[in-house]
Amino acid sequence: MSGNPDFQLFGSIAHSPIATVITDARLPDNPIVAANRAFHDLTGYSEAEILGRNCRFLAGVGTEPHAQALLRAAVAQRQPALAYLTNYRKDGTPFLNAVMIAPVLEEGGAIGYFLGSQMEVKGGTRLPEPREQRAQRLVASLTPRQRQVLAHMIRGYRNKQIGPLLGIDEKTVKMHRAALLARLGAATSADAIRTGVEAGLGINGPG
Ligand SMILES: Cc1cc2nc3c(=O)[nH]c(=O)nc-3n(C[C@H](O)[C@H](O)[C@H](O)COP(=O)(O)O)c2cc1C
């Protein structure tokens, strides 16, 4: 994983406390190419057991078709999204999963990867209200420039691409990115993207 420079974009998902996977959207059926320790802790599957598979292996008989349809549409349109659906651990126990997905574009603007993170929702049908409220509060505390950078990160743009889009240089983009990660309390860019999508900057499905 560390040998692939593409993954440095995320400051290495290994550092995230949130279950996270990366899929390669250029390969047939969008297979997982990396997963972190938190994903293993949540689902019971090791990275080796899931590499090369589409994330739908977590779904099962009780998985909500409308939530799967939302993810299918988001993948097809290369859009960020948040969906709530029943998934199953390796031992067969179900859990409600708040899945966030976001595209990662290549330099030319074509889709490269998808970033995905999974969070168990306990005792309800949605993420606990405080988490979404917290995400909205945190995003509201960003400067307008930081919010613009975050909005572009969520859409899959890289520092090099965000600069020209905002009319600033790459170094300045990096500075804003570091500052917004700090404000959001995010360990990695992947976590910052998740917070932005939770705050409503992507396609949010009903619980
Ligand atoms: C990065 C990424 C992460 C995903 N994570 C999950 C997940 O944790 N659980 C799940 O049921 N589906 C997940 N999906 C969605 C499935 O891969 C698939 O898109 C969904 O089941 C709808 O497509 P299908 O009808 O072809 O199965 C994820 C998709 C992507 C791109």
Please summarize what this structure is.
The protein has helices at residues 37-43, 47-50, 65-77, 129-140, 144-154, 159-166, 170-184, 189-201; strands at 19-24, 32-35, 81-88, 94-105, 111-121, 203-204. The chain has a 6-stranded mixed β-sheet, sandwiched between helices.
List keywords for this structure.
207 residues; alpha+beta; 6-stranded mixed sheet; 8 helices; 6 strands; globular; binds flavin mononucleotide
Q: Care to describe what's here?
A:
Helix content is 40%, strand content 21%. It has 207 residues and is an alpha+beta fold. The protein has a 6-stranded mixed sheet, sandwiched between helices. Helix 7 packs across helix 8. The mean pLDDT is 90. The structure holds flavin mononucleotide (FMN).
Radius of gyration: 16 Å
The strand count comes to 6
- Give a short account of the largest sheet: 6 strands, mixed
Decide which structural class fits the backbone: alpha+beta
Q: Work out the helix count.
A: 8
Question: Which sequence of SSEs, written as H and E, runs from N to C?
Answer: EEHHHEEEHHHHHE
Helix % is 40-55%
Strand content: 15-25%
Q: Residue-averaged pLDDT, rounded?
A: 90
Shape: globular
Low-confidence stretches: none
Task: Furnish the topology, listing elements before pairings.
Blueprint: E1 19-24, E2 32-35, H1 37-43, H2 47-50, H3 65-77, E3 81-88, E4 94-105, E5 111-121, H4 129-140, H5 144-154, H6 159-166, H7 170-184, H8 189-201, E6 203-204
Parallel strand pairs: 3-6
Antiparallel strand pairs: 1-2, 1-5, 3-4, 4-5
Helix pairs in contact: 4-8, 5-7, 5-8, 6-7, 7-8
The structure holds flavin mononucleotide.
